[in-house]
Amino acid sequence: MSSDLSKIRNLGIIAHIDAGKTSTTEGLLFFSGLTHRYGNIDEGTTVMDFLPDERARGITIMAAAAVIPWGEYEYHLIDTPGHIDFTAEVERSLRAIDGAVVIFSAVEGVEAQSEKVWHQADGYGVPKIAFVNKMDRIGASYSRTCRNIDEKFGGVALPMQYPDGEESEFHGMVDLLTMEYLQFQGERKETVARLPIPEALQEEAAAARESLIERVSDHSDEVASLFLEGEEVPLDLLRREIRRLTLARELVPVFLGSAKREIGVQPLADAIGAYLPSPIDIPEYPATDRRTGKECAVHADPKEAFSGFIFKINASNTADLFFLRIYSGTLHANDQLVNARTGEKVRAKQLYRIYAKSTEQIQEAGPGDIVGLTGLKECGIGDTLCAPQRVLSFGGILFPEPVISMVVEPKFSKDKDKLDDALNLLCREDQTLRRSTAEETGQRVISGMGELHLEVSLKRVSTDFGVEIRTGEPRVAYRETILKPTTVHTVFNKTIGDSVFYAEVTIDFAPGDREGDPFQIQDKTRGSIPRALLEAATQALQDGLRTGGLQGYPMIFVNATLKELVFSQDTTTPGAVAGAVNEAITQGLQQAGTVILEPLMKLEVLAPEETVGEISMYLQPRRAIISDMLQVGTMRKIVCHVPLAEMFGFGKALPRLSGGRGSFSLEPSGYQEKPAS
Fold this sequence. Notes:
Layout: E1 8-15, H1 21-32, H2 52-57, E2 64-70, E3 73-79, H3 87-94, E4 99-105, H4 112-123, E5 128-133, H5 142-153, E6 157-159, E7 161-164, E8 172-175, E9 180-185, E10 191-195, H6 199-217, H7 221-228, H8 235-247, E11 252-256, H9 265-275, E12 285-289, E13 295-298, E14 307-314, E15 321-328, E16 331-332, E17 336-339, E18 345-347, E19 350-355, E20 358-362, E21 364-365, E22 370-374, E23 384-386, E24 392-393, E25 404-410, H10 416-429, E26 434-437, E27 444-448, H11 451-463, E28 469-471, E29 475-476, E30 479-482, E31 486-496, E32 499-511, E33 519-523, H12 531-547, E34 558-566, H13 574-592, E35 594-608, H14 612-619, E36 625-632, E37 635-643, H15 650-657, E38 663-673
Parallel strand pairs: 1-3, 1-4, 4-5, 5-11, 6-11, 33-34
Antiparallel strand pairs: 2-3, 7-8, 8-9, 9-10, 12-13, 12-24, 14-15, 14-23, 15-22, 16-21, 17-18, 17-23, 19-20, 19-22, 25-27, 25-28, 25-29, 26-27, 30-35, 31-32, 32-34, 35-37, 35-38, 36-37
């Protein structure tokens, strides 16, 4: 644990798939001295992508964490997946970080998933710096990528470097603050030489520096007054103002390089310390006091009462490893804590420093640390752990609904229990995986975010748990929603044995916003109602709406307001309340009527100009609505929305349609009513 909180940086590396996140992370590990070999994705030697499937596919599947020493700093780094199917890994990682490095490919620029993760980071108020990678690739352009960032995200790009050449002629860069030429020397480019700027670059570099100062002056009165008077802006002032504007999320410093060729990684690592926030740069972390229900604030102070947030679980049959971000206080091994969600006491038996797949046992950790815990009972992702004297909650994580399902059965009937255990464990680890049972056949059904998501998850059933399985064809995860508002009043009054059970509820149901939360459940009852009965009603609404509508599909986009709950001290139990609520849901659906919704996907296809016509002809009969065609270097990008049901097999068809030169990305884009045809 670093004793100086100002030197800690909690950061995530986020981007579109194949932009170079893992290569950049491997560079940080290598140049920090933590590894003695620069991990290579093609050779399967990466440290952060340590799962066999990650190395075989060359992609990141699970967010991996590592603590990296960099000079006087300590970086707690999380390398996240870029593939949209693993968006949950990004979502929960963003809850644990204070700053982010967003990586863009200099060839493709801002792609679909990089745009999504940028907005996800904005949703959590995370300051960012950017790294334009792959400057040595054919079609690379730093200036075009910076313009692209400005166009997509509102003029926030602040180019901090100027490239010396592009594509095969890329050799180094100019530091626009110090006006020095950076040359990367040595067998593994481990030495960064700061040299005078070559004459051929001086004019362009001077213009780029003036542009940098001008952009900073738009947000800084101090810099603006010096700039307008034609005076030299002191280097310390410029650095200080860029840091302030980065933390305020008004500007995003942009760096460049080629992680695979080991160029530009060290300046990026220096920039993490210079411009991203430490825990003490965050004035306060908002929380809710569980005892009073009022909002409160947590500060990065080791002397405050302990609080931390579980953002990830590595589940296993022996002992789950819980990833915890500490916000306040000091945690010791074997401390007794409270799970704010359940109110139950738990004990953190052992405490670990995490380094990719390796762990090192430690005795204590403090604010800003990301650590591993074992021995916790009944804890899950999104839970807040805190000291018994101050029970508070940081709020949970809202995960997207699964869009695709698949039947899965054991090859041998003797493995049924083992398969159930494996599926339960996978769902505990990944909240975008859901398991259910098909009502008609009794078969096990697993649902997830895409074909790759299910394929990777189910492969672990064989490799990690030794269960051979058979799977059905992927199926679209349809949903239902109600057509109109309705109000329902129901009475539950039953005699079971010698006991009478009674409860009475009035509930308003209304269609929800299809861009908003899947369910919004509100309590607008009046009077003094026991908390246990209100919680039973809320839980029954959550569970009842999820189970299915009139046509058998899970409900979504429904608002339910509990208006009245009539109870008797002698005969009303939580079970009776749940019975009344379930009856109200049944009546409400029949009165309001339902419609089937199908998942809609945003598809982006990058392909050579001459193949665009054939790809468009393939998409149009599949109900695709093309919204844009963009020029990206020498390639064309087709942007469209298409129902997921029409996308099965597209990955196999695209190489044929594009002459093997096309690529695509697919991400959920809401729901639409399924046509009767």
